[in-house]
Design brief:
With 284 residues, the protein is mostly beta strands. It has one domain (9-112, 143-278): Acyl-CoA thioesterase, double hotdog domain (Porin, Beta Barrel), CATH 2.40.160. The chain has three helices and 17 strands. The chain has helices spanning 36-53, 184-191, 195-200, and strands at 9-12, 15-21, 60-68, 77-86, 90-99, 102-112, 144-149, 168-172, 201-202, 205-206, 208-210, 212-217, 225-236, 239-247, 252-262, 273-275, 281-283. Strands 1, 2, 3, 4, 5, 6, 7, 8, 11, 12, 13, 14 and 15 form a 13-stranded antiparallel sheet that branches. Strands 9-10 form a two-stranded antiparallel ribbon. Strand 9 (201-202) and strand 10 form a beta hairpin. Helix 1 packs antiparallel against helix 2 (184-191).
């Protein structure tokens, strides 16, 4: 069992707007660079806090967009969140993450008020992504290494999935901030960065680095287990656009879109590493 102390960040001097990254937030691109899962999670954490401060318990997340316009280092982060527009059925929250006074990433959340569905019939796909069977991946609220499915069945053996097949992942979200339970929105927002993994992971590892995330949700996740299934990928001249379906144990949640740039000189070779459920990484 992974220790419950796992998290991407801790609070700095108990200040609500300053977070300090822990080792679990470090990416495989560089020893001094944070990965997008932690960044998106931190931005979503700040957006959700701002919504709560406004007292809008009647709204839920419908769209989450993140721009990763500078590499985020493994140094303290300052988060500022502002409500850009608030109405009876909608609230838009913008969040900026800065380091050493420099803007590094931006998140924009659209929160909507749910209502009754309409009576008209509308097309939807007959096939939906399916979570791994409980006997293969037992349900859990404890963070663990992701499970992957490709031409090989669900497993945590990344080497078995370093191929050109269509991929799916199943993750149990890590708490964003130490001592605070991860919410469904934070889980979905953080996991959404993994769309780059399921759409850009090929025979030589991940050779593309994503520059943004756009997540849409028709409902919030039930629990903190989130699945991603690659649904489309288009690449030309070193620019790749990937789309993935988002789902949980109950069924589909929405979709996520990422744009990525070729980064072959700093390839992440997932086939050469193994992960343990407590977040440790080692080379094969």
């Amino acid at each position: 069992m992974a220790p419950v102390t796992l998290s991407f960040f801790t609070r700095r001097d108990d200040r609500a707007t300053e977070l300090v990254p822990r080792q679990l937030a470090c990416s495989m691109w560089s020893k001094d660079q944070m990965h997008g899962v932690a960044l998106s999670g931190a931005l979503a954490w700040a957006a959700e806090r701002r919504l709560a401060e406004a007292g809008r318990t009647d709204l839920r997340p419908a769209r989450w967009a993140v721009d990763l316009f500078r590499p985020a280092r493994m140094v303290p982060c300052t988060l500022s969140a502002e409500i850009e527009r608030e109405g009876r059925r909608i609230c838009l929250v913008d969040v900026i993450l800065s380091q050493d006074g420099e803007r590094v990433a931006r998140g924009t959340a659209t929160f909507l008020r749910p209502s009754e569905s309409t009576d008209g019939e509308v097309w939807e796909p007959a096939e939906r992504p399916q979570p791994p069977a409980p006997e293969v991946v037992p349900p859990s609220t404890v963070p663990r290494a992701p499970y992957v499915r490709s031409s090989a069945d669900w497993s945590q053996d990344f080497l078995a999935h370093q191929n050109a097949a269509r991929k799916a992942t199943w993750s149990t979200a890590v708490p964003v901030v130490a001592g605070e339970p991860v919410t469904g929105f934070q889980a979905a927002a953080a996991t959404a960065d993994g769309a780059s993994m399921v759409t850009n992971w090929g025979t030589r590892g991940i050779e593309y680095i994503n520059t943004d995330i756009t997540l849409t949700l028709a409902r919030e996740p039930e629990g903190v287990e989130i699945g991603l299934l690659a649904t489309d990928r288009v690449e030309h001249d070193g620019i790749a656009v990937g789309t993935a379906a988002v789902f949980d144990r109950r069924g589909p949640l929405g979709s996520v879109l990422v744009a990525a740039l070729a980064n072959a000189r700093r390839t992440v070779d997932l086939g050469s590493v193994t992960y343990t459920d407590d977040g440790r990484r080692s080379n094969r």
